[in-house]
């Protein structure tokens, strides 16, 4: 399957490569069409869909995948949320949501001031570009689950739906 991923972030690219059959994905820098730091499930999901569609519109690949991270406030506490979408040239789109977990208030306060989670996490964990490594989920689970593995889960749900619904339609 010749697949494009709408990000140059290595954790997202590796997650797609790990799941697809031939193991090779084209990575493209495409706009998400939402804020750099999405602030709700809706906005994060839309960012994933926009990225997936933008990849296909570039015309290099038949199938595009968009993965987007964001935050969602529930009862005064911020949770990291993650969404993915897969799109093909015929306009088919499938979606999937991933893990969510709470962030400490000290991080929530910085998010409220308009800072982006990636840099906040790097400062908090004292790890450069932690968003391209284990990510917030790796830090707050003591390494039990890293950001790539979290996206692998989403990509499996995306590719799985794509295959299932292609068969059903045939
Ligand atoms: O360290 C992190 N661990 C995570 O689990 C996580 N989830 C989201 N974010 C941050 O939320 C913003 C939008 O996310 P995002 O989808 O735009 O990702 P990104 O900016 O890292 O990649 P990309 O935009 O180049 O594809 C960015 O500031 C991300 O760093 C995370 N940071
Ligand atoms: Mg980003």
TrEMBL record:
**One Pfam family matching this protein:** NTPase_I-T
Molecular function (GO) terms for this protein are: ITPase activity; metal ion binding; nucleotide binding
Write out the catalysed reaction: XTP + H2O = XDP + phosphate + H(+); ITP + H2O = IDP + phosphate + H(+)
**Keyword Nucleotide-binding found:** yes
Q: Which domain of life is it from?
A: Bacteria
Reported EC number(s) for this entry are 3.6.1.73
SUPFAM superfamilies assigned to the protein according to its UniProt record, in alphabetical order? ITPase-like
Record keyword Nucleotide-binding present: yes
Q: Bound how, and how many: what does the cofactor note say?
A: Binds 1 divalent metal cation per subunit; can use either Mg(2+) or Mn(2+).
Describe the location of the Non-canonical purine NTP phosphatase/PRRC1 domain by residue ranges: 6-157
Question: Which controlled-vocabulary keywords does the entry list?
Answer: Hydrolase, Magnesium, Manganese, Metal-binding, Nucleotide metabolism, Nucleotide-binding
GO terms (BP aspect): nucleotide metabolic process
Required cofactor names: Mg(2+); Mn(2+)
What is the role of this chain?
Phosphatase that hydrolyzes non-canonical purine nucleotides such as XTP and ITP to their respective diphosphate derivatives. Probably excludes non-canonical purines from DNA/RNA precursor pool, thus preventing their incorporation into DNA/RNA and avoiding chromosomal lesions.
| PANTHER family assigned | NON-CANONICAL PURINE NTP PHOSPHATASE_PRRC1 DOMAIN-CONTAINING PROTEIN, PTHR34699
The family note in this entry says: Belongs to the YjjX NTPase family.
Describe its partners and assembly state.
Homodimer.
Listed name of the protein? Probable inosine/xanthosine triphosphatase
